[in-house]
Amino acid sequence: MIGALQCVVLDCPEPVSLARFYQALVGGTVNRRDRRWALNDEWATLHLPSGQVLAFQGVDDYRPPRWPDGTHPQQFHLDVGVADLDAGHQQVLAYGAKLLDDGGGTRGWRIYADPAGHPFCLVLERPPQST
Asked: PROSITE patterns, per this entry (predicted)?
């Protein structure tokens, strides 16, 4: 092993605003003090309850991915498990997400873009099958 993953970094035009979007989506603390990073207008963090960290880096002339257009690839995406897909849908739209693909209404997932254009999925959590 060479090192340990510190965080996942998303490029965006407004770091604190996007950190707050993801805070509403998955919880956590925006811009908690951390010796690893200096916080400023061009860098924000979201410390998740699980211990993981998402970071948001301001980029001049930011160009969002365009799912599913391969000429502007998504680069990565997050899957967020939800117990109720319809309720999650309404909540992420209220926070500023845009629906990209409704999964045909029967697939158990939907694809959205966050306010900076990064794709993410809401995935229906299914209870374990009893045997």
From this structure: VOC
> Phi/psi class of residue 105: alpha, beta or left (left: φ > 0; alpha: ψ in -120 to 50)?
left
Residue type, 41: D
Q: How far is CA 64 from CA 61, 113, 116, in A?
A: 10, 9, 6
Structure pTM? 0.78
Q: Distance (Å, rounded) from C-alpha 119 to C-alpha 61? A: 19
How distant is the alpha carbon of residue 3 from its chain centre?
24
Structural domains of the chain ordered from first start: 8-58 (3.30.720.120), 63-131 (3.10.180.10)
Residues 28-85 have pLDDT tens digits of 999 999 887 778 889 999 999 999 999 999 999 888 888 888 887 777 778 788 888 8
- Residues 83-117 pLDDT 10s: 888 999 999 999 999 999 998 766 788 989 999 99
Number of helices (H), then strands (E), belonging to the chain: the values are 2, 8
Q: How many CB atoms lie within 10 A of CB 118?
A: 23
